[in-house]
C-alpha cells in the first residue's frame, strides 16, 4: 500500500517546482479564487513548493494528522493575513490537489491495469491528507477570526467581568451595582437636602449607568431609570425653589445613554456568540 | 466524421455509466450508508457538535444529502446545481450553530462512507473495474470539491452579513 502511494509521492517531490508553477498559474486566474489574482506569483509558487515538498513527510509520518499541521497552520496564517476569504483558500487547496493529480496523469504514471489499482490507493491516500489539511486550515482560520474579534473586544470584555471570582461574576456585579446605587442615593441626599444645591455631582452617575448597560445589555436601562427617578424625586422634595428643567434633562440623558449603550452591548454579545 | 462523433458519444455514455455505478449504489443504499455515517459523525473527535444531535435528524440529513448528490452527479452543470442545493444545506447548518470546520468534516465523512460502502461491497474488484473506480472516484471528488466550496462560501457570507448588521447597528 505504502509502496503504491510512494510512486506518486516520489513524483510530487521530484517535480514540486513544476507542479507548484502550474498550480500558481491556475489559482492566479481561476474565477473562484479572485483574491489570489493580485498576489505575488513568487509567493504563491513558494507556498505550492512548500506543500509539495512536505507531502512525503506528511504522508509517511506515523501521525499524518499532526504532521500536516506544520503546513496547514502556516498556510492559514499567511493567507488570513493577506485577507484571502476562507472559501478561496480552500478552493486554492483543492486546486493544489487537482494539479498534483493532473500532473501524475499527464506523466502517464498510472497506465496499466495494475497501475490503475495503485492509482486508486494513491488517490485515496492523497485525499485523506488533503482532508486533514482542509480541516486544519478551516479550524485555524476560525481561531484567527476569534482571536482578532477578542482582541478588539478586549477592553469591553474586561469591563464585562466575565467569569470573575471563580465564576461568581453575576453576584459580584449585583453587589457592586447595589453599592454604586446606594452611594448615589447618599450623594443625592447630601447635595440636595444638606447643601441645597444641584451641582454637577450627577456626572458621577454615568459610572453605574454605563457599567449596568455593559453588564446586562438592554436590561441595564433600569439602573438609569432608577437614578433618573432618584434625582427627580429628590429635587421635588428638597429643591422646590430651584427650576426643574435641569434635572429633567439630566434624567432623560441618563435613560438615553443607558439605552444606547445597552443596545450596542447586545450587538457585541451577538458577535461573541457568533465566534 | 460521423463515426468519430458516434464513437465519442458512445464513449461518453459508457464513461458516465461507469462513474455513475458508485452513485447508483449510494442512492440505493442511502439509508445504510447514512446510518454508518451517523455512527461515525457522532463519535468522531472532529465533529464534536454532532455528538449531541438526535439520530433521526442527522440520518435524515444524510439521506437527503445522498439523494441530492445523485441529482447533482448526473446533472449537465453540476456546479450550478451544487449552488442551488448546498447553499440551503449550508444555511441550515449555520443556523443550527455547527462550526464550519465541523460541517465540512461531516461532508468529508459522507464522501468517505460512500467509498467505504462501495469497497465493502467489493464493487471495483476486477481489472476493468479499477479503471472505473478511478473514474468514479475522480468525479465524486470533483462533486465534493464543488460542494465544499459552496458551503464554505455560504458560511463566510452569512458570517459577514451578521457582522455587517451588527456594525450597522453600532453606527
SSE blueprint:
The complex is a heterodimer of chains A (275) and B (171).
Chain A: H1 2-14, H2 16-27, H3 41-60, H4 64-81, H5 86-106, H6 113-152, H7 154-160, H8 164-167, H9 169-195, H10 206-216, H11 221-238, H12 245-274
Chain B: H1 2-28, H2 30-41, H3 55-73, H4 78-95, H5 100-120, H6 127-170
Helix pairs in contact in B: 1-3, 1-5, 1-6, 2-3, 2-5, 3-4, 4-6, 5-6
Provide key terms for this protein.
heterodimer; A: 275 residues; Globin-like; rod-shaped; B: 171 residues; mainly alpha; 6 helices
Total number of domains of chain A: 2
How many helical elements of chain A? 12
Order of helices and strands of chain B: HHHHHH
Main sheet attributes: strand count, strand direction, barrel closure of chain B: none
The total number of structural domains of chain B is 1
- C-alpha termini separation of chain B: 67 Å
Global Rg of chain B: 19 Å
Main CATH class of chain B: Mainly Alpha
Instruction: Please name the CATH topology of chain B.
Output: Globin-like
Instruction: Give the averaged pLDDT of chain B, no decimals.
Output: 79
The general outline of chain B is globular
Arithmetic mean of pLDDT of chain A = 82
**CATH A-level architecture of the largest domain in chain A:** Orthogonal Bundle
The level of helicity of chain A is over 70%
Q: What structural class is derived from the secondary structure elements of chain A?
A: mainly alpha
* CATH class call of the largest domain in chain A: Mainly Alpha
What oligomeric assembly is this protein in?
heterodimer
The whole-angstrom Rg of chain A is 32 Å
Amino acid at each position: 500500500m505504502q509502496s503504491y502511494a510512494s510512486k506518486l509521492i516520489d513524483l510530487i517531490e521530484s517535480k514540486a517546482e513544476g507542479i507548484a508553477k502550474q498550480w500558481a498559474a491556475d489559482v492566479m486566474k481561476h474565477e473562484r479564487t479572485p483574491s489570489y489574482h493580485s498576489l505575488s506569483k513568487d509567493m504563491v509558487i513558494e507556498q505550492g513548493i512548500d506543500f509539495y515538498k512536505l507531502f512525503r513527510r506528511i504522508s509517511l509520518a506515523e501521525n499524518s494528522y499532526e504532521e500536516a499541521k506544520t503546513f496547514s497552520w502556516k498556510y492559514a496564517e499567511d493567507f488570513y493575513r493577506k485577507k484571502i476569504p476562507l472559501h478561496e483558500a480552500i478552493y486554492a487547496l483543492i486546486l493544489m490537489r487537482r494539479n498534483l493529480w493532473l500532473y501524475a496523469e499527464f506523466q502517464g504514471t498510472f497506465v496499466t491495469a495494475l497501475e490503475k489499482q495503485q492509482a486508486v490507493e494513491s488517490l485515496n491516500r492523497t485525499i485523506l491528507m488533503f482532508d486533514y489539511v482542509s480541516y486544519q486550515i478551516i479550524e485555524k482560520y476560525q481561531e484567527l477570526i476569534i482571536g482578532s474579534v477578542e482582541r478588539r473586544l478586549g477592553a469591553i470584555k474586561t469591563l464585562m467581568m466575565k467569569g470573575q471570582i471563580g465564576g461568581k461574576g453575576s453576584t459580584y456585579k449585583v453587589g457592586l451595582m447595589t453599592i454604586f446605587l446606594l452611594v448615589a442615593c447618599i450623594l443625592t441626599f447630601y447635595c440636595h437636602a444638606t447643601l441645597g444645591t444641584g451641582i454637577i455631582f450627577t456626572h458621577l452617575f454615568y459610572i453605574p449607568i454605563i457599567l449596568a448597560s455593559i453588564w446586562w445589555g438592554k436590561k441595564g436601562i433600569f439602573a438609569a431609570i432608577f437614578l433618573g427617578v432618584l434625582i427627580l424625586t429628590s429635587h421635588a422634595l428638597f429643591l422646590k425653589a430651584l427650576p426643574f428643567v435641569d434635572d429633567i434633562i439630566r434624567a432623560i440623558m441618563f435613560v438615553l445613554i443607558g439605552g444606547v449603550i445597552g443596545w450596542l452591548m447586545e450587538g457585541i454579545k451577538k458577535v461573541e456568540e457568533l465566534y | 466524421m460521423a463515426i468519430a462523433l458516434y464513437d465519442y458519444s458512445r464513449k461518453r455514455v459508457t464513461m458516465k455509466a461507469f462513474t455513475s455505478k458508485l452513485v447508483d449504489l449510494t442512492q440505493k443504499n442511502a439509508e445504510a450508508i447514512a446510518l454508518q455515517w451517523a455512527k461515525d459523525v457522532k463519535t468522531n473527535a472532529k465533529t464534536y457538535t454532532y455528538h449531541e444531535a438526535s439520530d433521526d435528524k442527522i440520518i435524515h440529513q444524510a439521506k437527503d444529502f445522498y439523494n441530492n448528490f445523485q441529482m447533482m452527479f448526473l446533472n449537465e452543470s453540476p456546479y450550478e446545481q451544487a449552488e442551488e442545493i448546498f447553499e440551503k444545506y449550508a444555511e441550515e447548518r449555520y443556523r443550527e450553530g455547527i462550526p464550519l470546520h465541523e460541517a465540512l468534516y461531516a461532508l468529508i465523512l459522507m464522501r468517505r462512507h460512500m467509498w467505504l460502502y462501495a469497497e465493502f461491497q467489493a464493487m471495483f474488484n476486477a481489472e476493468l473495474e479499477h479503471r472505473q473506480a478511478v473514474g468514479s472516484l475522480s468525479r465524486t471528488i470533483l462533486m465534493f470539491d464543488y460542494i465544499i466550496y459552496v458551503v464554505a462560501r455560504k458560511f463566510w457570507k452569512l458570517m459577514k452579513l451578521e457582522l455587517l448588521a451588527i456594525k450597522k447597528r453600532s453606527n
